[in-house]
Amino acid sequence: MLCLGIESTAHTVGAGVVDGKCDVLSNEMETYVPPKGGIHPREAANHHAERVVPVIQAAVEKARVGFSELELVSFSQGPGLGPCLRTGATAARSLSVSLGIPIIGVNHCIAHLEIGRGTTEARDPVLLYVSGGNTQVIAYMAGRYRIFGETLDIGVGNLLDKFGRGMGIAFPAGPKIEKLAAMNTDPYMPLPYSVKGMDISFSGILTAAEAKKREGAPTPQLCHSMQETVFAMLVEVTERALAHAEKDEVLLGGGVAANSRLRRMLGRMAADRGAKMFVPESHLCIDNGAMIAWLGLLMHRSGIRMPVTRTRIRQRFRTDEVEVAWRK
Ligand code: ATP
Ligand code: FE2
User: Fold this and answer.
1) 172 lines ligand 1 (CB under 6 A)
2) Whether residue 255 has its Cβ less than 6 Å from ligand 1
3) Quick one: how far is CA 275 from the chain centroid?
4) What is the residue with the minimal CA distance to atom 11 of ligand 1?
5) Nearest ligand, CA of residue 39?
6) How far is the CA of 228 from the centre of ligand 2 (A)?
7) 111: closest CA among 285, 311, 309?
8) Pairing label, strands 195-196, 72-78
9) How far does Cα 66 stand from its chain's mean position?
10) Is residue 190 predicted with pLDDT exceeding 90?
11) 39 pLDDT tier (thresholds 50, 70, 90)
12) DSSP for 146-197?
């Protein structure tokens, strides 16, 4: 069975074609970069509306299939920015109606986890999902994907982007911050470490780092200290989730998964506990259509059906609202 998945929760509009064995036949995407400042939902949605058709066409072409061979279309139903989600949902509904194939709306966060299970050897992992808008630690327990810990304010990628913007680093700032941190030769500078129970908060770190910048702290030292602090917080919460859920696999997902310092820290923690770490290929870590296609397939195969009239987007769609019928 071939499924086309459409992603449009935030900056990226993507489309991917995946088959029933989780072979990714194509994974096309285009990312909206705001001219300045943060993301404006309506402007990002306009970008997606302009680009969604070419992206879908490219995905079908690259997969070397015809539209008539698609048997299912899936889309990111949430969580995400309303106008952006609506663009992807509308494209998916049009395809479903015009091709006469079933449509299925999927939870974006769960898609990050399932593409990891589908394309790596992870079977029952704790997912550390770190992106611009999301920061969650998720694992399967008693029929659902439970959130073991999450950010109480902004996503970690958003923290890095905001911090970078204040220093004149263009969006996305994460990769540049990683490079600057690697150049640092100064000692670690303490920043607020805020883990509250299993949850995390980042806003205090941003304020503190910006104040240190104004006092003249060197940028590489700040980038290094920022990374060490926030990654340690993420690793701590992930480790406790592993212990609590009694799992021995860690999966990394989201755009921040590209960071090699985070990978090393998480890998070290996993090794110390005798657990295994898995990181999907980069194009499957960031927001992408292939992961949406794969989760659509899993849901469809487990018997889940969604009439077009029940495909409204869900901006605040929670990971633990979904009954994970395909793992029973
Ligand atoms: P979501 O809708 O899931 O929140 P998103 O729109 O933030 O996703 P992603 O592609 O998952 O999109 O992630 C982008 C984020 O990843 C940006 O905040 C960017 O700064 C960050 N990022 C990318 N590469 C790195 C890196 N090497 N180190 C740290 N952060 C990175
Ligand atoms: Fe994402």
Assistant:
1) yes
2) yes
3) 22
4) 255
5) 1
6) 23
7) 285
8) unpaired
9) 29
10) yes
11) confident
12) EEEEEBSSS-HHHHHHHHHHHTTPPSS-HHHHHHHHHH--SPP------EET
Which atom of ligand 1 approaches the CA of 155 most closely? 4
Query: How far does the centroid of ligand 1 lie from the alpha carbon of residue 134, in Å?
Result: 9
The pTM score is 0.97
Q: Which amino acid is at 40?
A: H
Contact 238, 115 (CB under 8 A): no
Tell whether the model's pLDDT for residue 36 goes beyond 90.
no
Distance CA 325, CA 328 (A): 6
Strand partners, 257: none
Does residue 192 have a cis bond before it (omega within 30 degrees)?
no
**Helix H or strand E segment including 239:** helix 219-245
Name the residue with tokens 């770490």: 277
Pocket test for ligand 1, best of 87, 135, 160, 171 (most atoms within 8 A of CB): 160
Block residue for tokens 């908060």: 201
Q: Rounded to the nearest whole angstrom, what is the distance from the C-alpha of residue 20 to the centroid of ligand 2?
A: 22
Rounded distance from Cα 114 to ligand 2 centre (Å): 12
Instruction: Provide the edge-to-edge strand list for the sheet that holds 249-253.
Output: 144-150, 135-141, 126-130, 249-253, 276-278
To the nearest whole percent, how much of the chain has pLDDT over 90?
A: 96
Rounded Cα distance between 219 and 181, Å, is 8
- What's the CA gap between 15 and 13, in Å, rounded? 7
Distance between CA 180 and CA 98 in Å, rounded? Answer: 50
Give, rounded to a whole angstrom, the gap between the first and last alpha carbons of the chain.
21
Q: 237 and 200 in contact (C-beta within 8 Å)?
A: yes
CA of 130 from ligand 1 middle (Å) equals: 7
Rounded Cα gap, residues 94 and 89, in angstroms: 9
Which tokens hold the place of 282?
A: 């980069």
For 25-63, b where at least 16 C-beta lie within 10 A, e where not — what string?
bbbbbbbbeeeeeebebeebbebbbebbeebbebbbeeb
